Automatic annotation (TrEMBL):
Source species: Pontivivens marinum
Span of domain PPIase cyclophilin-type: 15-163
InterPro entries recorded: Cyclophilin-like_dom_sf (IPR029000), Cyclophilin-type_PPIase (IPR024936), Cyclophilin-type_PPIase_CS (IPR020892), Cyclophilin-type_PPIase_dom (IPR002130), Cyclophilin_A-like (IPR044666)
Composition bias type Basic and acidic residues, residue spans: 62-74
Name by which UniProt lists this protein: Peptidyl-prolyl cis-trans isomerase
Length: 169
């Protein structure tokens, strides 16, 4: 299913090691294009995993408020300067390692925030856009610091150190 060509492989460096996500341009072309644009702009470098719920998912990608030096109370409320994206829902299921776009209640509000599933989340199927699948380093995702309580808000969160595409050095 996952097209793991270098130009469609997003590589996230975490404190524990590298995570490779095979992007799915055939499933979510607009979302994959957005991810590539934000990676090229280095927008994700240093961004926190602000919401991490054990047994569910790790959320990151707030390029507005999630960077070091930003207001941690606002992490998770922002996005990029680019317009929100229309939903690209598919039949691709949310399973362990699936990468999906976060959004508000409006299905057409995905922007820059995304999440990686720790476990299956069938209740998300057809409700959120799937844009990729972890192909390497899921053990590193498993080590991301969890948040407390039901909200999963993380104090002193782990961060994406750098994010790059596989066809860049």
């Amino acid at each position: 299913m996952a097209d793991a060509t270098p130009e469609n492989t997003m590589i996230i460096t975490l404190p524990a090691g590298e995570v490779h996500i095979a992007l799915l341009p055939d499933v979510a072309p607009k979302h994959v294009e957005r991810m590539k644009a934000l990676v090229a702009a280095k927008a994700y470098d240093g961004v926190a995993f602000h919401r991490v719920i054990d047994g569910f998912m790790a959320q990151t990608g707030d390029v507005e408020h999630g960077k070091e030096g930003g207001d941690p109370r606002r992490a998770g409320t922002g996005g990029s300067d680019l317009p929100d994206l229309p939903a690209e829902f598919s039949r691709v299921p949310f399973e362990r390692g699936t990468a999906g776009m976060a959004r508000s209640q409006n299905p057409n509000s995905a922007n820059s925030q995304f999440f990686i599933m720790f476990e299956e989340g069938a209740f998300l199927n057809g409700q959120y856009t799937v844009f990729g699948q972890v192909t390497k380093g899921m053990d590193h995702v498993d080590q991301i610091k969890r948040g407390a309580g039901g909200s999963g808000a993380v104090t002193d969160p782990d961060r994406m150190i750098t994010v790059r595409m596989g066809d860049t050095v």
